[in-house]
# Entry
Amino acid sequence: MPSNSKEKTQIDVAGRKLKIGNLDKTFYAATGFTKGQMLDYYIRIAPLLLPHLTNRPLTMKRYPNGAQGKFFYQKECPVHRPSWVKTIPVWSGGNNRNINFCNANDLPTLVWAVNLAALELHTSLSLAPAINQPSLLVFDLDPGPPATIVECAQVGLLLKDYFDKQKLQSFPKTSGSKGLQVYVPLNTPVNYDITKNYARILANRFQEKFPNQIVANMKKALRPGKVFIDWSQNDEHKTTVCVYSLRAKEHPTVSTPVTWNEVVTVVDKKNPDLLSFEATQVLERTAKLGDLFSPVLTLKQKLPAIK
# Structure
């Protein structure tokens, strides 16, 4: 990768010419992790990341001045984009028009987006063209301090146990921030009314069963010391951080797929650091483990009636 900083450098990415700049700009002050390193990470992780981005409306969370700077969400794919960047039209009732989201379906588009300081990549639960049909069910487990990802892991295992009994496979990943997320791949026809209602009812059942441990209510005042099961992510208007996306934290942490054995270990050892992974560690993990989230792309499961 070129390492010049202030002047824009033209590079060839899979046959596409791209101008990239500010490669020496520090994006994570605590570690000195630069924009060039950010681009390098995304290029290296691309073979695993791109299948999870392809044909999903992409919301770019852009940090022009680095992870600790101001950010903005960009849903509409920039007008001044290369002609080869594909888009996905999604009808917006509020705007009474289609919003054309970027479709990061290849390496040049990914590099182009990251060069725009799209440090975080957030995706829809739907795959185009079936925009009204979620391919996934997701539970975002958010700890209310002093709870940590250790408590999230405990709740994640409760969810896994429930889904195991329903003969549904579930897959955990770190949020890359404080929490843990549990995904249930569906890849069968279903709508958001069904998945959101299912997630809401299940979260409330868990709150009733484990009132000292779990909260399903949005009110932040109810969360201290508990794990909030955010069921509301199962919505056509919402996005969830994509697997392998960097996060804008003090360190370049990544939303990382993990094994259920690793989730058990963090509960046993009560060490939240065991479920925190930075970019370099993720590249090392994936070299050994491959894409732990690959089944999420294809595994077909039908959502049963909630019990």
Summary: The radius of gyration is 19 Å. Confidence is low (pLDDT under 50) at residues 1-5.
